[in-house]
Write a structure and sequence with these properties.
globular; Rossmann fold; binds nicotinamide-adenine-dinucleotide; 9-stranded mixed β-sheet; about 25% strand; Dihydrodipicolinate Reductase, domain 2
Length: about 325
């Protein structure tokens, strides 16, 4: 596990959990902050290393690694690992620039490495249960609000939080983005802390996103409309509600038997809840990564997916900059 700061610690915990199930061995944690590396190694019963190079020379048998170092270091660290023959799960956003993302793609191809990107919400059981229900989404309303904490302040809220939803919506819509409208403001960090974005896709679909890391409440919801249906995902509660009009539920769902129908106030509208088995998204993500490593298969969230979400995030930030220039407010 490379980088055991706020989020890397969670990866280490999950690897240890999988080790107890007997499918993987957690060799060690790497962090230049040796006090932290030692504490994590004690907590998760593995070795502590001060650098990737030190780990590689001590343990040539390492096959796979998660990378949760600050985003600006993703390329440097993942490149060293891939060149040494190690498959990588790189935290999101995949890199800080498109040039870095392209270099990751090049190195992964050259060394024939499995490289997955940590877009966690793809493994949220609520998102997975929604995938088979998608027909032609036309309108999204997405909210991701969190309370302020002094972490990940090296990137804007768009690359820190909104990128999760950009990746999910890109997966659901499968159409090119035609137009971006965006506004964003620095509030506490000097970078954009709150942003509102309207995307229009070639398909005609419109998606509105609000992301904030300076909110007083925690909300993570994605709602969308498609022919005859309104679908509401609560990422945090891991549940999905499907409201259908005029029999659309049967057509779109196919496996309506797996949905628990609920009485509705309006008899024209049927409400259903897909059956969902709760699972920690990070556990599902790491299990999928290890499966790709074993089978040498394309990961569920590829480097190309990570690059696509980053490209959209950066384009949104540019639009936020243009908007700030137009109205005479500094972007920070
Ligand atoms: N998927 C998610 O929901 C999610 C959530 C939070 C953070 N993240 C991502 O995880 C990454 C880390 O974020 P964080 O909040 O844990 O940051 P953090 O600053 O808390 O931790 C980063 C750690 O990396 C270590 N580090 C720095 N250089 C290193 C190197 N060369 N080798 C090994 N370790 C090194 C630091 O000492 C630190 O302990 C970021 O890319 C962030 O975007 C993802």
């Amino acid at each position: 596990m490379i980088g055991v700061g706020a989020f890397g610690r969670n990866h280490a915990r999950v690897y240890q959990q999988l080790q107890q199930a007997g499918r993987v061995r957690l060799v060690g944690v790497v962090d230049p902050n040796m006090a932290r590396a030692d504490a994590m190694a004690r907590e998760f019963s593995c070795k502590a290393f001060g650098s990737v190079e030190q780990m590689l020379t001590t343990h040539s048998g390492v096959q796979a690694a998660s990378v949760a170092v600050p985003t600006v270091l993703h390329l440097e660290v993942a490149r060293t690992l891939m060149e040494a023959g190690v498959d990588v799960l790189i935290e999101k956003p995949v890199a800080a620039t498109l040039g870095e993302a392209d270099e990751l793609l090049r190195v992964a191809a050259e060394h024939n490495r499995v490289a997955q990107v940590g877009h966690l919400e793809r493994f949220n059981p609520a998102v997975r249960a929604t995938l088979p229900l998608i027909n032609r989404p036309m309108f999204f309303e997405v909210h991701r609000l969190s309370v302020f904490s002094p972490r990940a302040l090296d990137v804007d809220v768009v690359l820190d939080l909104m990128i999760h939803d950009l990746d999910v919506v890109l997966t659901f819509v499968k159409s090119e983005v035609k137009e971006i409208r965006a506004v964003g403001l620095p509030v506490l960090s000097g970078k954009v802390d709150i942003a509102n974005v309207r995307l229009e896709f070639e398909s005609g679909c419109v998606a509105n996103f609000t992301a904030s890391r300076v909110s007083t409440e925690r909300v993570r919801k994605l709602r969308f409309f498609q022919a005859g249906q309104y679908i509401s995902i609560d990422y945090g509660r891991q549940d999905v509600l499907v409201f259908s009009v005029g029999g659309a539920a049967g057509n779109a769902v196919g496996s309506a038997a797996e949905m628990a129908s609920e009485p509705s106030v309006n008899p024209q509208i049927q409400m259903a809840k897909p059956a969902i088995t709760a699972e920690e998204p990070l556990l599902a993500e790491i299990k999928a990564f290890l499966q790709s490593v074993r089978e040498r298969s394309r990961p569920v969230v590829s480097l190309e997916d990570g690059r696509r979400a980053l490209e959209l995030g950066l384009a949104i930030l540019e639009e936020i900059g243009r908007h700030a220039g137009r109205i005479g407010v500094g972007r920070g």
